[in-house]
């Protein structure tokens, strides 16, 4: 059986968390540049120009893209033929997050609890999503999730008869009510189906796809395009100052569900759409 | 149409200055401001309610809703963009009554806050959310003045130099998030 040490996991997490705080992905950068060409509002273009400049300044390595360097959400697909040695997965991930916080000058944005509200001081613990998969490889995705956009998430158990129209209406309402708070232009992750907890994870995982990539199912892909158009008609615009580019992309993920249910969730990511991926 | 040149402002702001500003105007702010977010606002309003003094002179002051990343050696501060202002709405009334003249943040404000701007002659500025690296270059000095145990949420005195912002809500009822956005809604 292949051995993978906790230290290897920690190093990978540290590297991904540090890099994503300073370097926007090529997909995100090109989406912002394209938005600049499409946006019709002058104030909106002003915001997009600042965001493109901001990304260039951050890439020089002195200042992170955003002061909210996020809660580390770590997705691990663990090959069932590999064995983790030298510590627990949660500890290994947290060690990587802790080192990134210190060495890359990231903000400690995590509290020990919602009521005590005492800062843990090192941005741990991370949220870890583990799946056991075939093979002996380990895939790690680190997403830095800002609080402003996460606060605008929505989950609703729709009426099973709501159909595509009901889902679109739910997504548009979530984006309109979020307004300027999640730092538009946003990326919208939509989950449909599953159950209460599955649909939230679907919405979050939808954000991990390359920006603007279409769902492989042509019907769902068509629905993604429809939702993007509808969201961009809300007028929220860059910075929420009014305009024609409110979202850069809508990603939809669907799953089987109960005959009585139509769970739906929206997880919004800000324009600082930060993740990194590694394979061990 | 070429965008209008931004208006240069220096803090502290007078009531007349604040009242003269109109929503939609770009500004470049220089001078002293103070960072405070949720935890610091809670403490400040508790102090005022108990008859205590705030840790800085709030008369004519501008508060920036921000919690920066740690400063690298040789830099006054790390990335420092605005956080969501609406979370501070519940704390604003007593601060305006105590002399607060300006706020910098991102996003919509409550009716109560906007009415407070009219009553007291104050102004709300929006900075670009998520432009924390760019905005850091407009901070030339920073010093923690209260509650260091709050970390990123401590109150810092910061010196702004040509800090770019937009008048979002003015004292005459103007609001870029309200009227400004309506023009772009496509039903």
Overview features:
heterodimer, A: alpha/beta, four-stranded mixed β-sheet, globular, B: alpha/beta, fumarase, five-stranded mixed β-barrel, 26% strand
Mean pLDDT of chain B: 95
Q: Roughly what percent helix of chain B?
A: 25-40%
CA distance, first residue to last residue of chain A: 14 Å
So what's the overall shape of chain A? globular
Q: Strands of the largest sheet of chain A, in order across it?
A: 4-2-5-10
- Architecture of chain B, according to CATH? Alpha-Beta Barrel
H/E order of the elements of chain A? Answer: EHHHEEHEEHEHEHHEEE
How many strands in all of chain B?
7
Q: Identify low-pLDDT runs of chain A.
A: none
Largest interface: A-B, 49 and 49 residues
CATH class of chain B: Alpha Beta
Task: Give a brief outline of the structure.
The complex is a heterodimer of chains A (280) and B (187). By secondary structure, chain A is of the alpha/beta class.
Walk me through the structure.
The complex is a heterodimer of chains A (280) and B (187). With 280 residues, chain A is α/β, with parallel strands linked by helices. Chain A folds into 2 domains: 2-20 and 65-145, no CATH class; 148-273, no CATH class. Chain A has 8 helices and 10 strands. Chain A has helices at 6-22, 26-38, 42-59, 89-103, 147-150, 163-178, 196-206, 218-232, and strands at 2-5, 71-79, 82-85, 127-133, 138-145, 154-158, 186-194, 247-257, 262-269, 274-279. In chain A, the strands form 3 sheets. Chain A has a 4-stranded mixed sheet with strand order 4-2-5-10. A 4-stranded mixed sheet of chain A has the order 6-9-7-8. Chain B has 187 residues and is an alpha/beta fold. Chain B has one domain: Alpha-Beta Barrel (fumarase), CATH 3.20.130.10. Helix content of chain B is 26%, strand content 26%. Chain B has 6 helices and 7 strands. A 5-stranded mixed beta barrel of chain B has the order 2-3-4-5-7. In chain B, helix 2 crosses helix 3 and helix 3 packs parallel to helix 4 (111-120). The mean pLDDT of chain B is 95. The interface between A and B is large, with 49 and 49 residues.
């Amino acid at each position: 059986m292949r051995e993978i040490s906790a230290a290897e996991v920690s190093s990978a997490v540290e590297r991904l968390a540090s890099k994503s705080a300073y370097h926007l992905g090529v997909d995100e950068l090109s989406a912002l540049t394209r938005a600049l060409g499409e946006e019709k509002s002058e104030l909106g273009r002003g915001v997009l120009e600042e965001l493109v400049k901001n990304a260039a300044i951050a890439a020089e390595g002195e200042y992170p893209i955003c002061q909210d360097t996020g809660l580390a959400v770590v997705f691990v697909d663990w090959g069932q033929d590999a064995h983790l040695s030298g510590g627990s997965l949660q500890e290994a991930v947290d060690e990587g997050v802790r080192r990134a916080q210190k060495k890359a000058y990231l903000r400690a944005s995590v509290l020990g609890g919602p009521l005590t509200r005492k800062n843990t001081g090192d941005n741990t613990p991370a949220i870890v999503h583990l799946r056991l998969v075939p093979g002996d490889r380990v895939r790690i995705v680190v997403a830095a999730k800002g609080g402003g956009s996460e606060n605008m998430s929505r989950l609703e158990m729709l009426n099973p008869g709501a159909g595509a129209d009901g889902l679109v209406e739910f997504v548009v309402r979530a984006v309109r009510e979020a307004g300027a708070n999640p730092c538009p232009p946003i990326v919208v992750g939509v989950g449909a189906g599953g159950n209460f907890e599955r649909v939230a994870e679907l919405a979050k995982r939808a954000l991990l796809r390359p920006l603007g990539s279409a769902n492989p199912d042509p019907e769902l892909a068509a629905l993604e395009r429809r939702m993007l158009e509808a969201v961009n008609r809300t007028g929220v615009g860059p910075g929420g100052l009014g305009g024609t580019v409110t979202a850069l992309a809508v990603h939809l993920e669907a799953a089987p569900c109960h005959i009585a249910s139509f769970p739906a969730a929206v997880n919004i990511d800000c324009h600082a759409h930060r993740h990194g991926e590694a394979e061990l | 149409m070429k965008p209008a040149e931004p208006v240069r402002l220096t803090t502290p702001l007078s009531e007349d200055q604040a009242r003269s500003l109109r929503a939609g105007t770009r500004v470049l702010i220089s001078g002293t401001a103070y960072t405070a977010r949720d935890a610091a606002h809670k403490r400040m309003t508790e102090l005022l309610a108990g008859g205590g003094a705030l840790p800085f002179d709030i008369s004519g002051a501008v508060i920036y809703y921000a919690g920066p990343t740690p400063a690298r050696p040789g830099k006054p501060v790390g990335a420092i963009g605005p956080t969501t202002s609406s979370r501070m709405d519940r704390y604003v009334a007593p601060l305006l009554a105590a002399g607060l003249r300006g706020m910098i943040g991102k996003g919509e404000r409550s009716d109560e806050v906007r009415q407070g701007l009219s009553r007291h002659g104050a102004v709300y500025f929006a900075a670009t959310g998520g432009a924390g690296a760019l905005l850091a270059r407009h901070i030339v000095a920073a010093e923690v003045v209260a509650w260091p145990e709050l970390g990123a949420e401590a109150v810092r005195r910061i010196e702004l130099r040509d800090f770019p912002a937009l008048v979002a809500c003015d004292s005459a009822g103007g609001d870029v998030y309200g009227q400004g956005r309506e023009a772009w809604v496509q039903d």
